[in-house]
Amino acid sequence: MSKQLSNKTLGVIYILLSAVCFTGMNTFVRLSGDVPTFQKVFFRNFVAMFFALFALLKAGESLKPKKGSMKYLTLRSVVGLAGVFGNFYAIDKIELSDASMLNKMSPFFALIFSAIFIKEKVRLKQAIAIAVAFVGALFIIKPTFGNENIIASMAGFIGGMCAGGAYTCVRWLGITGENGKLIVFFFSAFSSIVTAPYLIFNYHHMELWQWAALLMAGLCAAGGQFSITAAYTHAPSREISVYDYSQVVFAAIVGFFAFGDIPDLWSFVGYFIICAMAVWMFIYNNRNELRKKA
Fold first, then answer.
1. pLDDT in tens, 54-81
2. Quick one: which of 75, 83, 113, 112 has its CA closest to 100?
3. How far apart are CA 51 and CA 31, in angstroms?
């Protein structure tokens, strides 16, 4: 039982760390300015690829996937890349905190996909918490025709859905014993290869500060990928997914001080609902663990 508790605690720590890293990534992506989305995605993953490769080589670990892992690594990479495109497009068009929140629909979809494909049991109160958090996200999305950024908002939402599918693949790969470093490397290499042709034929000139911004975005992305991979390989999504919503808090703070973003009242209502659900889930999970020990 202590081992299970230790895994859950590690999962929470890693997912909070990933929220900080991905907030940094989103911030630097936006700071890079009018660089095409394809180019931003390439540099984000190209830098992360080298960090993952270095980590694998330093540990003396194999670059060969385990038997049966290739199809899940590929699926994780395809839907994960789609999620990055949706997220980056939203970052360029709407407020940083709102874009981050839309991407944080990933835990909601990870919970659904994990229940369907991995058969991980979802407790009623956990399902309610995720559902209410989803309602909170709707306050931020404001899905009405009066929203002039509805396309960007939907891109961010679909990006979050794709990310949820990717994290479900990560969870399955973790259950089957696949190396977390290899998962990060495969995704980064796959994404770099797919986006490289655009960069070769449609390269957009960048100033030195834009190079620096995208380099930092790549560094943060590497940290975020390692952290989120570690989180979902240590614990089921039902136990840690709500904590992923902490990124919206970090993004709101950074967005205000770095870009002067001030979310509207409805966005604040959404933030409050989501944070309340995170606190409720924290209390519920702790009480549940205590009852198991009794």
1. 989 998 988 888 888 999 999 999 999 9
2. 83
3. 22
